[in-house]
Design goal:
The complex is a heterodimer of chains A (328) and B (442). Chain A is an all-alpha fold. Helices cover 59% and strands 0% of the residues of chain A. In chain B, helix 1 crosses helix 4. Classes of the chains: A mainly alpha (328), B alpha/beta (442).
Chain lengths: 328, 442
């Protein structure tokens, strides 16, 4: 007879694991990846590959040679970071090497320097993205033209494309009214036939992924709804005040990174509050900051900054926002 | 359908021994009866070496306040009074009895007739519960005579019977309901009489539709017994959660059910109450499930208290399968892993649960990813992840401030943690430290 195991209760465990959660997030990102490949072609695929492979490789190298600890690359979290980083850059040929630098910053500084998965205060992909935006402003805002259907030319950097938010920022700064600008239609925006970072263009694809995550209870509705909702309401108020200088709320939430940010990056378990009440405040803050940066900041887009700022508030929110105790 | 409002999980139910009728386990050659089978102080042995005892004879007397009588489960000669290691390796005072025949006390009514009438006064009922050594059979083994002596100034309004059996695998309560529904209802009526409450509410999880139906049909012949089907959600049978589910009331932190006018009893206890009051039979038997996915057969037994785990295993399945990883007394969520299979069973033991090697091993622990699942699963609204950090860094005072003592140790946090952190182990450690700290301050 073997010796019996002895341990405290419970003696069963749910089938959920960190690994399963991360791979499910990866799966949820697939629809947006497919849309990116459809509209930006092979470049999108290559940028994603480079980003994912670099993230995984850097994590492996750091764990093996610097931290000297068993590798955790199979938990799939480095792939999530790689995909999200790729989703936040333009799908152009020059990004192929730049995104690898972003991966080093995301994994090395954003994640491993704090002790790896679970210990990072900021979303690693956004740390990498913001670093690239500041260091490579030209490449990071050179948008490829959106192809009709799977453009096959390799390695061409078309710079004629522009994002709706970029057009508005430039137009408003030049004193033009929004109604006089040439913006894509709402259906084009919803399906993703617009310029922008490769993973953020299609609200539809992002929503499909988000609904999957909601069903699997990996994210809850609190952050996405308050993020998108507060952005909608705040931009709606501004639009009602002056529709010539402020974008209408529907276009606001469907363009730029709000959908991707609200569904996939603000909801990152590690860097968002745990209690539902904290998540509501977190989402609200993200939405408000995004609109503030978009309208009065020097960048056309503010989602990354908004989420990073709210990430920094998360420990406080965890301290203030407690779950409701039984019988209290 | 009624349920508690906050947290909870749904582990695989695994009620594979549902259809196994209760069998009688034969008596072994020697019986070891622990004097400490209940919450509180051990009973004092009132027999000596060489004494002849009969089945049901008092051998350990309750002398402290929080204590219960212990009776001989067999007839024979007292071999010695010594200590014995219990199932978890802790030495306890015990009476060893050499079994000779099966001679019962004459006062015990062993006829199969069901005795319905009870004319005892509440005080007499409580005195008889004490005499018969009745304790709560839901797990805590709280002496019944203390529970049913309502303190001055308090008033019982609800009697709640816990038949949720929300623990995976366990089926003893289910079998008792299916086979002894009438006796249970008489037992409930007696407890209602003892408390003077108008209604008793029996909470049964809805994964036992046959038990619900059978109990409803039986309860119709009785006054004031309400059967409440409950949602299948663990820990539906935890005292505070069950009170919340059935009455909507909430027992505040550090308070007892009677503070909100409730008394909760396990369904198994009501059967023991029937036997004690109507048949003069002390608590000398357990209804016990022998189950496990890897066992060749599934069983429910009526076992004399004091039968060892090894005797139960060899009689029911011969021997443990090669692949056995763990033997658990109780269910998989709150049961305790057995250390010593030579130990005797005690009052309140509900199962011998055998878990395979693979299932018995915990997955390696990884970093907390702050998903908050432990927090959302906690039926008490606590923050298990925070306790883990506080206990690991020795912050006992802070753990107390965050109400670590409210933890009911249901295990929902550890069950749901994707990083496999041993949250409940750490919380138990923290609770012990907090209690030690509070004792030191006094």
């Amino acid at each position: 007879m073997n010796l019996l195991n002895v341990s405290g209760s419970p003696h069963v465990h749910s089938d959920e694991s960190t690994k399963q959660i991360m791979w499910r997030v990866n799966l949820a990102l697939v629809p947006a990846l497919l849309v990116a490949i459809c509209f930006f072609g092979v470049n999108a695929l290559l940028v994603s590959l480079v980003s994912v492979v670099s993230c995984v490789l850097f994590q492996w190298l750091i764990e093996k040679f610097i931290l000297k600890q068993p590798t955790t690359i199979w938990d799939g979290s480095a792939i999530v970071t790689g995909l999200l980083l790729a989703f936040n850059v333009p799908a152009t040929a020059s990004m192929l090497w730049i995104v690898a630098i972003g991966a080093l910053v995301a994994i090395g500084i954003g994640k491993m320097s704090f002790g790896g998965l679970g210990k990072n205060p900021f979303n690693p992909a956004l740390v990498g993205r913001v670093f690239l935006l500041i260091s490579f402003p030209v490449q990071m805002t050179t948008w490829p033209t959106v192809g009709k259907w799977f453009p096959t030319q390799l390695m061409t950097d078309a710079n004629s494309g522009a994002t709706p938010l970029g057009i508005i920022k430039e137009g408003v700064m030049n004193g033009q009214s929004i109604s006089s600008l040439n913006l894509p239609s709402l259906s084009e925006i919803f399906l993703g036939h617009i310029g922008g970072s490769m993973g953020e263009i299609s609200a539809l694809a992002i929503l499909i992924g988000a609904i999957y995550l909601l069903c699997k209870k990996i994210i809850s509705w609190h952050i996405p709804v308050t993020f998108i909702g507060s952005a909608f309401i705040f931009s709606g108020i501004l639009w009602l005040i002056n529709p010539e200088t402020y974008l209408d709320p529907l276009t606001t939430i469907l363009t730029g990174g709000i959908m991707l940010g609200a569904c996939f990056m603000a909801t990152d378990m590690v860097t968002s509050p745990m209690a539902k009440s904290g998540q509501l405040i977190f989402g609200l803050g993200c939405g408000l900051l995004t609109i503030i940066i978009r309208n009065w900041g020097s960048y056309p887009e503010g989602v990354s900054f908004a989420i990073l700022i709210m990430n920094s508030v998360t420990p406080l929110l965890n301290r203030w926002c407690k779950p409701k105790r039984f019988a209290c | 359908m009624k349920t508690f409002k906050m947290g909870g999980v749904h582990p695989e139910e695994n009620k594979i021994s549902n259809d196994a009728a209760i069998e009688i386990m034969p008596v072994g050659k020697q019986m070891v009866v622990l004097m400490n089978q209940h919450l509180g102080a051990p009973a004092t042995p009132v027999v000596q070496k060489g004494d002849k005892v009969k089945v049901g004879q008092l051998i350990g007397e309750a002398q402290a306040f929080m204590c219960a009588n212990v009776h001989s489960p067999v007839s024979g000669t007292v071999l010695k009074i010594d200590t014995c290691k219990d199932a978890f390796g802790i030495s306890k005072p015990a009476v060893y009895i050499n079994v000779e025949g099966d001679e019962w006390m004459e006062s015990i009514d062993r006829t199969p007739d069901i005795k319905r009438e009870c004319t005892l006064e509440p005080k007499e009922i409580v005195a008889k519960l004490k005499e018969m050594g009745i304790v709560g059979l839901g797990g805590a083994t709280f002496p019944a005579h203390i529970k049913y002596s309502i303190p001055e100034g308090k008033k019982a309004e609800y009697l709640i019977i816990n038949a949720a059996e929300c623990e995976p695998y366990l089926t003893s309560d289910y079998r008792v309901m299916m086979e002894h529904a009438e006796e249970i209802c008489i037992g409930i009526s007696i407890l209602r009489r003892a408390l003077g409450v108008p209604n008793a509410y029996v909470g049964i999880e809805s994964n036992k539709p046959q038990a619900i139906k059978h109990m409803q049909e039986t309860a119709r012949q009785f006054e004031g017994i309400v059967i409440e089907p409950l949602k299948v959600k663990y820990p539906q049978g935890a005292e505070k959660q069950l009170i919340n589910a059935i009455t909507g009331r909430k027992v505040p932190s550090g308070k007892l059910p009677i503070d909100v006018g409730c008394v909760v009893s396990n369904i198994g206890t009501t059967f023991a109450v029937y036997e004690a009051i109507q048949k003069n039979k002390p608590l000398i038997e357990n209804i016990l499930t022998v189950t496990g996915k890897e066992l060749p057969s599934q069983h429910n037994y009526k076992v004399r208290i004091g039968t060892t785990y090894n005797e139960i295993i060899s009689h029911s399945i011969g021997q443990l399968p090669e692949t056995t990883g763990k033997v658990i007394s109780g269910g998989t969520m709150m049961g305790k892993a057995v250390v010593n299979l030579d130990a005797p069973t005690v009052k309140g033991n509900a199962s011998v649960l055998v878990i395979g090697e693979k299932e018995a091993r915990r997955a390696p622990e990884t970093n907390c990813i702050r998903c908050g699942k432990c927090m959302h699963a906690c039926p008490m609204g606590l923050e298990p992840y925070l306790f883990s950090a506080l206990v690991r860094t020795g912050k006992t005072e802070e753990a107390k401030e965050h109400n670590i003592l409210d933890c009911i140790e249901c295990g929902c946090c550890f069950f749901s943690c994707p990083a496999n952190k041993p949250l409940l182990d750490e919380i138990r450690l923290g609770k012990n430290r907090v209690r030690a700290m509070m004792a030191a301050k006094k």
